[in-house]
Specification:
Elements: H1 4-18, H2 23-35, H3 37-60, H4 62-68, H5 70-93, H6 102-121, H7 124-133, H8 145-178, H9 182-205
Length: about 210
């Protein structure tokens, strides 16, 4: 089990990292602005799902594999770039419709959750980050290394999810007012698309 003193050090560091703007936060901002507060929260939950999977595979050693083999890292990275560009195009082709019925709305939220999960999974820097930070707080003498990875990854994930959800809600509140005006709604649609393009450029130009 992880010592309490270790958690006292890890939690403030995790919080500081969570409030630093990154691809996950910008994704939730874009989805919230485009489709409303609920979409922003669902986007955050999708990111959280991807982050949890990253924590599991990091504990199993995949992050170390990506770090050791540059080609594998690049393949995942460029797949993420392509997917973000695809989302940007889809945003332009599918304007937000606040009058959608409930089944359509439910399906849309499921799609946003899946997109958030994929955006996170296709960002290999998240896996490398897990490998760089979490092991510094893992002590093999305190039990299963894998379980410690999951606990620390979950702590990091919960804080990030809450912050991303807040950002998504905030963007959604503003976006809801803007969508009442046709010109503002069109501008918001382009803004959301530009956010996804910006994320793609960031992922494409980031170095390990």
């Amino acid at each position: 089990m992880i010592e309490f003193e270790t958690l006292l050090i890890f939690i403030p560091i995790a919080l500081a990292l969570n409030i630093t703007p990154g691809a996950d936060m910008l994704f939730c901002l874009g989805q919230g602005a485009k489709s409303g507060p609920q979409a922003g929260v669902v986007a955050a939950l999708g990111i959280a799902t991807g982050s949890l999977i990253h924590a599991v595979v990091a504990g199993l050693g995949l992050a170390a594999f990506l770090a050791a083999f540059p080609l594998a890292f690049e393949i995942v990275r460029w797949a993420g770039v392509a997917y973000l560009v695809y989302l940007a195009v889809q945003t332009l082709r599918s304007p937000s419709d606040t009058s959608a019925d409930e089944p359509t709305r439910s399906a849309s939220l499921k799609k946003i959750w899946r997109e958030g999960t994929l955006v996170c999974l296709l960002n290999p820097k998240v896996a490398i980050f897990m490998l760089a930070l979490v092991p510094q707080f893992v002590d093999p003498t305190q039990g299963s290394v894998f379980v410690q990875f999951l606990i620390l990854g979950t702590i990091l994930n919960v804080g990030g999810t809450l912050i991303c959800a807040f950002v998504g809600i905030f963007a959604g509140r503003i976006g809801r007012y803007l969508t009442k005006n046709a010109k503002a709604a069109t501008a918001l649609q382009y803004l959301s698309s530009l956010i996804f393009v910006g994320l793609a450029l960031k992922l494409a130009t980031d170095r390990r």
